[in-house]
Design a protein that fits this description.
The complex is a heterodimer. Chain A is mainly alpha-helical. Chain A is 74% helix and 2% strand. Chain A has a single domain (6-297), classed as ABC transporter involved in vitamin B12 uptake, BtuC (Orthogonal Bundle), CATH 1.10.3470. In chain A, strands 1-2 form a two-stranded antiparallel sheet. In chain A, helix 1 packs across helix 6 and helix 5 crosses helix 6 (169-179). The radius of gyration of chain B is 18 Å and the shape is globular. Chain B has helices spanning 47-55, 77-82, 100-107, 109-113, 117-130, 132-136, 147-159, 177-192, 204-210, 228-233, 235-241, and strands at residues 9-18, 21-31, 36-40, 60-67, 70-71, 85-88, 165-169, 196-201, 213-218, 221-227. In chain B, 39% of the residues lie in helices and 26% in strands. Classes of the chains: A mainly alpha, B alpha/beta. Chain B: Residues 9-244 form the ABC transporter domain. Chain B: Belongs to the ABC transporter superfamily. Chain B: Keywords: Amino-acid transport, ATP-binding, Nucleotide-binding, Transport.
């Protein structure tokens, strides 16, 4: 293969960065949905991604379900897992404080990870790319078609969520809960139902991220925590609670990681997200698009 | 079912508070359908605690609340709304980051869930007619409204649920005198339209003017009650709450 020019390389890193950034954006969106309604950081968010990937592998590869059916069944299964997380780990907490609920999600993430190890073992699994592994050549760039699927699904998730939150009464009710929980109850919104819905939607988005990511990066039981950290860093970078911020934060983080690994030191790939997380927390804790005052006013 | 003399809302021997603090002790009161009933009292007398217990935002520790023949003492707030009892909370509690139109839309949340489109459309028309300023500002973010407009929005949002009983908690709080007059005119309008209202107010003069019946709350207990006009003439009320004599 001919050698790439620097420009081509930089563009190549950009495509990779956008792809991985789209995954982080989806994880960050998942964080935000639950955070906005409950103020809880669901540290099991990465496990939804892991479960999405592994369940998809089982349904599509092992059981031979067609791609679309396996995709739908996987998202549905992980959605149920998300709802169970709320019902079994969040709601039963006797004196719920934000801290105790976050700790409950940590415990849940460990349980998910342990169960996944029992079910799927410790080996990473591959998933066929949605439209084959033949790369697309575009002006000297080599783009895996799966990259486009990842980015496309991130865009789709974003559009659907925007419609949901701005056009449907359930979406508006969820926004109402994050805007003013007491007032939401006063207009007859069952806030517990909204929390359940938040977990369901977050889990579904996590599953989509996991399913689309697996053909590129494989999936194993142990990947959840790192994905959660990256997604969390993206959410903080963009401004916790902000959806445009989650996308921006995810993309920026993906690009930093891609360029950092490509141009600087690839061994520190995972460290870049943490460095960004620390820098944001030191320098601008409200993130790029977040208003701290707005975040503080949220109470359920 | 025949509507006998049973009150629309009956509160019996209610005790409630926050944690170890008891804010109201053994309060009993009744609201007859079609009336405006005012609860007046100083800051900290327990007025808000009482309303919060009725709307389900704060649990009573003892006593009973019966609304429309049904005990609601331990029902969740969102269930109570669905029975036809809406509260306009102290400090207005609008959805500050959402549009005026969305706030009003959400007032009819229960009708949305029941797919009663017609009730929603009628409700919107009614509240926009009642508060034309809200129609003008429908697309505006609610937090940017003036205090008076926010209070109107809070009332409009509560009315969207078509409540049989409307609880108003300090609707005049923090508003300029002219706006306060508007708010009380609204209350009179609602009264004339047949809405039953339980009003909690520090502004005793205005509260007694619009009310049919009134209670005076002091340190968590009912110390006086009677027809509003009679209370307005009571020397004790005059001295303590109306600044006369």
């Amino acid at each position: 293969m001919e050698s790439f020019t620097l420009t081509q390389q930089l563009l190549q890193f950009m495509v990779t960065g956008l792809t991985i950034g789209s995954i982080y954006a989806m994880v960050a969106i998942g964080f935000n949905i639950i955070y906005n309604v409950t103020e809880v950081l669901n540290l099991a968010q990465g496990e939804f991604v892991m479960l999405g990937g592994l369940i998809m592998v089982s349904l599509h590869v092992a059981l031979g379900l067609p791609l679309v059916a396996a995709f739908a069944a996987t998202v549905a299964t992980v959605t149920v897992v998300g709802m169970l997380l709320d019902r079994l780990a969040i709601r039963p907490v006797r004196q719920p404080t934000v801290m105790s609920l976050i700790i409950a999600t940590v415990a849940a993430s460990m349980i998910f990870k342990g169960l996944a190890m029992l079910i799927w073992g410790k080996n990473p699994y591959d998933l066929p790319a949605f439209s084959g592994r033949e790369p697309i050549l575009l002006g000297g760039l080599v783009i895996q078609s799966q990259y486009l699927w990842v980015i496309g699904f991130m865009v789709l998730v974003t559009v659907l969520l925007a419609l949901f939150f701005n056009r449907t009464i359930l979406g508006k009710a969820m926004r109402a809960c994050s805007d003013n929980g007491a007032a939401a109850r006063l207009v007859g919104i069952n806030t517990q139902q909204m929390v359940l819905l938040a977990f369901a939607v977050s889990a579904a988005i996590g599953a989509v991220a996991g399913i689309t990511l697996t053909p590129i990066a494989l999936m194993d039981y142990d990947r959840g925590a790192m994905l959660a950290i990256k997604g969390f860093a993206a959410a903080i970078l963009g401004g916790l609670g902000s959806f445009p911020g989650a996308i921006l934060g995810g993309i920026i983080l993906g690009l930093i990681e891609s360029y950092g690994a490509g141009l600087l030191l690839s061994g520190y790939k995972d460290a870049y997200a943490l460095i960004v997380l620390l820098l944001v927390l030191f320098l601008r804790p409200s993130g790029i698009l977040g208003g701290m005052a707005a975040a503080r006013s949220k109470r359920v | 079912m025949s509507k006998t003399a049973a009150p629309l809302l009956a509160i019996e021997q209610l005790t409630a508070g926050y944690g170890p603090i008891t804010a109201i002790k053994g309060v009993s009161l009744a609201v007859t359908a079609g009336q405006v009933v005012s609860i007046i009292g100083a800051n900290g007398a327990g007025k808000t605690t009482l309303l919060k217990a009725v709307s389900g935002m704060n649990r009573a520790t003892r006593g009973r609340i019966v609304f429309n023949g049904r005990e609601i003492t331990r029902l969740a707030a969102d269930r109570i709304v669905s029975l036809g009892l809406s509260q306009v909370a102290e400090g207005r509690q609008i959805f500050a980051h959402m549009s005026v139109a969305d706030n009003i839309e959400l007032g009819a949340y229960l009708f949305h869930r029941q797919r009663k489109r017609q009730l929603i459309d009628e409700g919107k028309e009614a509240v926009y007619t009642m508060f034309p300023v809200l129609a003008k500002r429908a697309g505006q973010i609610a937090g940017t409204l003036s205090g008076g407009e926010q209070q109107m929005l809070a009332i409009a949002r509560a009315l969207m649920a078509r409540p049989t009983l409307l609880l108003l908690d300090e609707p005049s709080m923090g508003l300029a005198p002219l706006i306060v007059r508007d708010i009380f005119r609204t209350i009179e309008q609602l009264h004339a339209g047949g809405t039953t209202i339980l009003l909690v107010e520090q502004n005793a003069r205005a509260a007694l003017q619009v009310a049919d019946y009134a209670y005076v709350l002091e340190t968590g207990r009912v110390v006086l009650e009677g027809p509003a006009r009679q209370l307005a003439d009571d020397p004790k009320v005059k001295r303590a709450y109306l600044g006369i004599g």
